[in-house]
Amino acid sequence: xxxxxxxxxxxxxxxxxxxxxxxxxxxxxxxxxxxxxxxxxxxxxxxxxxxxxxxxxxxxxxxxxxxxxxxxxxxxxxxxxxxxxxxxxxxxxxxxxxxxxxxxxxxxxxxxxxx
Length: 115
Fold this sequence. Notes:
With 115 residues, the protein is α+β, with helices and mostly antiparallel strands. Helices cover 45% and strands 32% of the residues. The protein is built from two helices and five strands, in the order E-H-E-E-E-E-H.
């Protein structure tokens, strides 16, 4: 699943600022959630498309990547078939390791279309 959030404003500077604020809020929420929920893993990474925040959910069996590209925040969610693991925290770590490359490849394709 891919979701694009375009920030448009009369001035380009404001659009970039608003996109940055949206990304920062998303990043902060993901990192905070990972600190308090053992079934979730989150990290911030530098990717070829820009700074990204990745959130893996062991119970939901998916990984979400948010990347700011100019005035657009791109969200890519990659799902994996449920395996009903006993340890959803470990499953979140597996998803982070196994799906991050796929989400970045999708994001890079979208970034290429935006530029």
